[in-house]
Amino acid sequence: MRALLLLFLLLGSSLSGCLGGGEPTAEELQVDEEPGWKVGDWFQYIFTTPQYGQDTARLVIAEKDESADNWMLAISSRAEAQRHAVLNHNPFLGRLTFSDLKVYENGLAQTVFNFPMEIGNSWQFTLFGFDWTAEVAELNSDGALIEATTGGGGTIDYVFDGKIGFLRSFEWTSGSGESMFDMELTDNGRGHDGQVWFVRATDLKDAVYENLDGEVSDSFLDEGHPSGTDFDHLVWYLDVIIDESAGSSGSMTIKDHLEATSLNRAWGAGSEENHAIGTIPSLTGEYTLTVHLSGSDSMVHLRVAGGLEQSWTL
Questions:
Q1: Mean pLDDT over each residue of the chain, to the nearest integer
Q2: Are residues 205 and 169 in the same domain?
Q3: How far apart (Å, rounded) are the C-alpha atoms in residues 119 and 146?
Q4: Are residues 45 and 112 in the same domain?
Q5: pLDDT digit string (tens) for 97-109?
């Protein structure tokens, strides 16, 4: 805890002139946890992605796990928790370490923040499947502006607000200039009242089926969570386009190893099913899927993740 307190004070001193907070008060010197969060603290953001447009939801401090030295950040939207499970689009959902608020990617803690914040400081981390080099570019009234770059993956620009101890904004822009994930703080406070969720997931399937003009069989295993625990359910995601020409069609069936049908979809000529998401039961073992497509421009993109769902009522 002394190390965490020192980290907090170093951050406060490096930002104090820019944020207008002055030197820490005697009361602030007595904080015994970094960054001064309490269970129930919340941060409300507008989240924007290419798939779903804009959505407003709260990130909420749902738990303080002393045994693992982690905070648990959950979200006030169950649908957003499921989307993250299968798309991995919000890196700040789930565990954050007490020290430096590291986020997790593929089970490894990543140093997205590096304290104390000083202009010119640089470090590396992995996020969204890319290796990034980050640097503190500015210290201003909004906090510390950090810029991260990677080969082929675009840029990340984000602002750490020293007053709230978390992000004011975060935007990942692809190499082609498309905004892939954006979050903007609209409000924050303490004492969230209501239910929040997090789905800790493992990717099981990510496949695109196209140029078939026929039928294909495929499979995936319903197992493999790092904890060794069976999944609570599977989360699926679909993007579908069926050729507009007469006679074009498509269908997809997923069955568990007992031959029970878990998901059944059918589409006619000119149909589209964009960014569809849902859950199916988890039954440990092999799942089989059958995809039938006709029409030269017909396509099905399927993603499946196995999830352990946690919820808290605060």
A1: 86
A2: no
A3: 9
A4: yes
A5: 988 899 998 789 9
Helix (H, G, I), strand (E, B) or coil at 6: helix
- Give the range of the structural domain holding residue 155, as residue numbers without chain letter: 2-193
Domain boundary among 144, 167, 193: 193
Does residue 114 sit in the same domain as residue 11? yes
CA 264, chain centre distance (Å): 27
Helix (H) or strand (E) holding 19: helix 2-19
* 3-state secondary structure (DSSP) of residue 3: helix
Using the Cα atoms of residue 203, residue 65, residue 62 and residue 161 in order, give the sign of their dihedral.
negative
Q: How wide is the angle at C-alpha 310 spanned by C-alphas 221 and 46, nearest 5°?
A: 105
Report pLDDT for 27: 30
pLDDT in tens, 15-32: 333 333 443 332 332 223
Residue 229 shares a structural domain with residue 301: yes
Reported as a pLDDT band with limits 50, 70 and 90, residue 34 is: low
Whether residues 175 and 60 fall in one domain: yes
- Give 205's strand partners: 304
pLDDT score for 35? 65
Q: Are 312 and 220 in contact (CB under 8 A)?
A: no
How many domains, in total, are found in the chain? 2
Phi, psi values for residue 111, rounded to 5°: -85, 80
Residue 306 belongs to domain with CATH number: 2.60.120.1540
User: In this structure, are 157 and 51 located in the same domain?
Assistant: yes
* CA nearest to 232, candidates 265, 202, 253, 256: 202
DSSP assignment of 110-123: E-S--SSP-TT-EE
